[in-house]
Structures are given as structure tokens and as C-alpha cells.
Amino acid sequence: MAVRSTPSSSSFASSSVPRPVGTVTRGTTHQNRLRRMDRWIAAVHGPALRRSADPVVVDLGYGAAPWTAVELLRRLRAAEPRTEVVGIEIDPARVAAAVPYEEDGLRFRHGGFEIPLPGSETRPRGVGTALPADRRPVLVRAANVLRQYEEGEVAAVWARLCARLAPDGLLVEGTCDEIGRRHVWVALGPEGPRTVTFATRLGSLGRPSDLAERLPKALIHRNVPGEPVHAFLRDFDRAWAAAAPYASFGARQRWVRAVRDLSADWPVGSDARRWRQGEVTVEWAALAPGGGR
Which of 135, 213, 230, 256 has the fewest beta carbons under 10 Å from its own? Predict the structure, then answer.
């Protein structure tokens, strides 16, 4: 990912900045890396895309290659064919390299946390072009963006990005490994954080706490005794161990049983279809730093 800044009260106070907010980072990316996050977004946030009069989505900091934005368009258009994706990068060279991949509904722009959005030129021919002067995205996906930030910077970045969302919008911010086997993300609405989702390729999982290495910046330094996220992963490991007899039916059945047992003590999402995908979603309030459990 290639967006990084040192937030200050002045940089977050204004919605209009003279230059992109952030500095260039390494921008590592691989094809199909964000497939787990994309599937979750399409399933959970698809209805909001369909309700929107202007379903514009931002891939913030797509990195040195445009694959993640190209894939996001394909996956979200399966949920809502009117979806438009704008890839935003702070490195002009990366934007220039991505422009040849533009297509109907996919554009690339130079920018940072201020999230500049293009206007009616992104609309397919024959579709009405009346757009609001200040377009607000229905979704901002920021994957592997804040990994190199300080924990104390995260809240200000979240607040700035959430302030740009449409009323029905969602910010998805998280971290994954290089090939997308393990992924943890936070979902935030305009009001702030809502949930944390853990997602994994079950065949590669030793125990649920293996996902700790991919906790987003807001939580990764909180995986210590006395913090809620540490207690959650501890209890998840215990439920996973207790579900060992189900391993003979496959890792998926073991995961589903472990999540079901975990839900007795933690506010886990009840959609078993998502569990079968190797996911579990927990209310943010249960894992928020400093709560203790």
C-alpha cells in the first residue's frame, strides 16, 4: 500500500487540502490477494450498493500494480452492475502505470486520504450524468494501508475516511498476508467502527490465534493479557481444540463447530454461511482496546 502520513490536527481539520495527504510506502500487491475481503464486502455490503443512486467505490492505496482495483470491480459488479471503482494512489508513477487498465467503470486517480473522486466522465454512455458536486463513496477499501503507521495515528485516519463516506457507506480497513490466506479487517460506518472480521484459508490454519499476526494496526499491539482481543483469540483456540473430533469431517466443520461454541460467550455474527467461508465477525465493542476481559 502506498499511502502514509503523519496526521496532525491541522491536516485533518480541513476537507480541502492543496496536495494529497500521505507519503509513498512500498506498495506490495499480488493478484487475488484480497479475495476474502472482496467476497465479504459483496455479500454484506451488496444491498447498500444496490440502494445507492451513485454506487462509487474506492480502492485506497492499491499499490504498485492495479490488480486489486480490477478484481474489486469484477466482484462488486456481480452484486451491483452499476458499481464504479476508483483506484487512488499517492504515487503519480503508479497512477500513470495503472491508467492503461482503465475500463468502463474503473478509473485511477492521484490522491490520498482526502479521497478525490472523478465526476460524470466515469459514467457509462447512456447513463444519466447528474452527479453530486461532492461525491461520497459507498465503500472505501483500505487494505494493508495502516500497517506501517503508529497505533496512535489510526483513530484520526479512520475519522477522516469515515467523514468522506456516503450516509449508507462503509470503510473496510485491514491487513492480510502476501497471498491472502489470512486476513483481519475492521468495518466502519460514518459513526465509527462496527465489527472485526477474521478470515482464513482453513486448510492452512494451525489454530485461530495464527491470525494474530494479521490483526489491523488498531489491535495488533493489543494482543496481550488483559486486552479483549487477546481473550478472544485465547477462547477461540480453546473452542478450536474442543472441536478437534470434527476434524475428521474436514477443517470447515471443525471451524463451524468452534465458532458456534465461541458464540456462547462472544457477540459473533450468526450467519453460518459466512462461517463456512472460513470467516467469523465480532462486534467491535467486544474487542476494542482497553476493555479488559
Answer: 213
- Average model confidence (pLDDT) for the chain? 88
Q: Which residues contact 113 (CB under 8 A, 6 or more apart)?
A: 3, 5, 20, 21, 22, 60, 157, 160, 161
**Which CA distances in Å does 89 have to 98, 112, 203?**
10, 6, 34
pTM: 0.88
pLDDT surpasses 60 at 87: yes
Kindly state the cell numbers that stand for 154: 489510526
Task: Tell the residue number behind the cell numbers 471443525, with chain if given.
Answer: 254
Do 147 and 156 form a contact (C-beta atoms < 8 A)?
no
Distances in Å between the Cα of 177 and the Cα atoms of 25, 171, 220, 277 are: 17, 20, 14, 17
Phi and psi at 246, nearest 5°, equal -75, -10
Asked if residue 41 lies in contact with residue 47, where contact means CB atoms within 8 angstroms, the answer is no
Q: Which residues contact 152 (CB under 8 A, 6 or more apart)?
A: none
Give the per-residue pLDDT at 290: 84
Contact 169, 48 (CB under 8 A): yes
Q: Are strands 182-189 and 170-176 parallel, antiparallel or unpaired?
A: antiparallel
User: Which grid cell sits at 163?
Assistant: 467523514
On the question of pLDDT at 57 being above 90, the answer is yes
